[in-house]
Write a structure and sequence with these properties.
about 35% helix, 6 helices, single chain, two-stranded antiparallel ribbon, alpha+beta
Amino acid sequence: MNTRDREIALAKLEARTVRDGCWVWLGGKVRGYGQVHMPPIGHKPARSWSAHRLSWEVHRGSIPPWMLVCHRCDNPSCWNPDHLFLGTNADNVRDGRAKGRGPGYSKSVMNMQKAEMIRRMWGKDGIDKHEIASRLNLSWAQVHDVIAGRTWQLGP
């Protein structure tokens, strides 16, 4: 990435807030991942980038083929290069299992009582998802899924 392209990318990546060390993307998102529309960069055409992948390219260099840019923090909207690492799909799956992400790999057993606590902590108390996960020994994904209504929904 040449200097001009790097400056354009850094200007686009300014949309953030810092929360728990994460540089949280404030713009558009797809499945929780920040999206950045970029003009052509080097040999690459104009396109949308995931903010964390663009951040890697700007701060660390090219992403080798078949490699993922993974999050140490488990926050898909984070693009802090210190929270990112390169890995294969298998590396990402192992990392997720170790952190309680993914089906059947919960850090702690979820139940309706915990789901209600999550909704209260998030809604009334305004506590961050990462903090809720830490307090209840749950993964960020478990907390997020309850808040998003994907799991442990209240009855009709």
